Amino acid sequence: MAYEYNADSRQLDFPNPFYAENWFLVAASVMLSGGGIGLLLLSRGAIAGGHGLRSVLPLLLGIGLLVAGLNQGRRVLMQLRFFFGRSRPAGLAPELTADATGRSGGSDELKETLRQNALSYPEPQGPLNNLLHAGIRNLIFAPRPVQFIAQRQFQTAIAIVVTLLSFLVAWLGFGNGKAADWMGLFYFGFSVLLLLRPLESGVAAPANVGMRGLIGLILAAIFVPVLLPFVASGLPSLDWLSLNVQTLFLLLAALLGVGLYFVALMHQMTGLPPTNMAREQTSLSMNCHPKQLLDELDRTLQDTWVERIPNRRYAKTVPLIGSGAGTFAAELVEETQPMSGTGQNRVEPGAAFTMPRYRFIAWLDVVGVALIALGVAWLLVFGAKFRPEVVDVHLFSLLTLGLAMLVVGHYCLRAGHVLWGRFDFVSRLVWVEMQGNYQSAQMNFGNTFTDRVKTEKQLINIETMTLRVWAAELDSVIFGKNAQRFIVGLRGVPDYARQLAAHLVDFAQEQSVIVAPTSRTDMQKSAVLGAMNRLGGQADAALPQAMMQAIQGATTPPPTPLPATITPPYCSGCQTPVNAADRFCGNCGHALAGAG
């Protein structure tokens, strides 16, 4: 998508919404890259010892940390500048080009929203979602992405809690032994998978646990301690890898991250949305094609373009008129360019902790960076103390614990990114619909016997056509500049709807039904014909002169008389100006002309 810039439309130059997040990503990138370089330096001694594949473990960890750090740096570089052109945000329905007609399912939904004077929200499905909405009653009015993420985060929290309880039951049931080692590996891997599910957009989520998932986790808590001893006897020993403590830390840290994310989501709610509509309905009669009314509406809406940015057109139906009599319908649905409703300002990292909407997002990033720092520190300790010839259980515990913290830290940073990209917009939606009946007619103007000039015109007579104008200001929101936009508020604009309807009625009633010459060329030709009619049977020699006089009279306006210039009298002897009533010159004493 291209970035469209206009110097006269500076309100779309939004500040970078990821400015504060970039600082947290820079910190994470520096720590990951530094830890990776440190492990690469530490791995040289282990590789020089020559103890097989085990000696390259610090090297692999260093490469992994370095790649993760560079990936975080890549995200920072991609978010250094933020471009938000005139073609963003996305429309509320598929848009039509300037010369296209038609409609879509999305435009029908918009019209139904205006007609019903109500916003539509998806009802929660499933017992867990209904439990969430029963506890947070206003969640149903939150933006749809917030609803979806909150539902899935609630399910994720339940999955983590049930997994934690199941793990504790299994851990206490085994205590130690081969089965306990395999049980720790199972729960560690399951917890990591819970947090590695994608979280890339507003409707994606890390987990979607229903009743089947809960029943499965509960059954695992009951039967895994019973079944593992029978299976573990045939499995290799994992006495060098004890993951029970690491799994406990992983689940607790994950629960903290999910809890912070859920609280941050709740601060994205704005309360009960406004829902009221302005509709102006009238009937009118006119003697013109209804397409003329649609053209005037198009011109009127173009005069009110916001920042001279074309409106988004979602539906347009042109009236079809045939011969005889029939019915017609026409409509136009347009939305003005969505503009920032809250005055987007750049969020500084320090100020983010004082703003209700961003406070818990910032703390979520703080937790993510802290967990990454803790994970990198433990991995560096592992690399410094690692000896390929010795298998140290406690040392491998540091390795797995560091990896667990990196997983949770990555989850926190990715979760916060979704919420940093929120934008609120205000726009105006107009829907004009026309319905009526028409009859074709013919009108003659002029006396058949006496008038030399007569006019004739085919008319479309429309009686009591229904004209409806719907107008509302829309509050909408997006999470990400290319994401889908959702309506979160509806406010009627009665004055605008009333003025637009009155303007269209006045335009329809002012349409002329008589054909008459209006241009200068028409007037010249009419004058020539009139001159020829007046001359009748006169001599041919008089015809050119009469035609020229007629043309001149029709095209040249009569000269405007100039005011007369009064010249004062002068003395004939010394040329000095004198008054008209004087008898002698006051300068030289010469007798003036006309003095008696």
UniProtKB/TrEMBL annotation:
Q: Which UniProt keywords apply?
A: Membrane, Transmembrane, Transmembrane helix
| Name assigned to this protein | Zinc ribbon domain-containing protein
**Mind telling me which residue stretches traverse the membrane in this protein?**
23-47, 53-71, 154-174, 180-197, 209-228, 248-267, 360-381, 393-413
Residue ranges that the Swiss-Prot or TrEMBL entry lists as coiled coil: none
At the top level, the lineage of the source is Bacteria
Source organism per entry reads Rhodanobacter thiooxydans
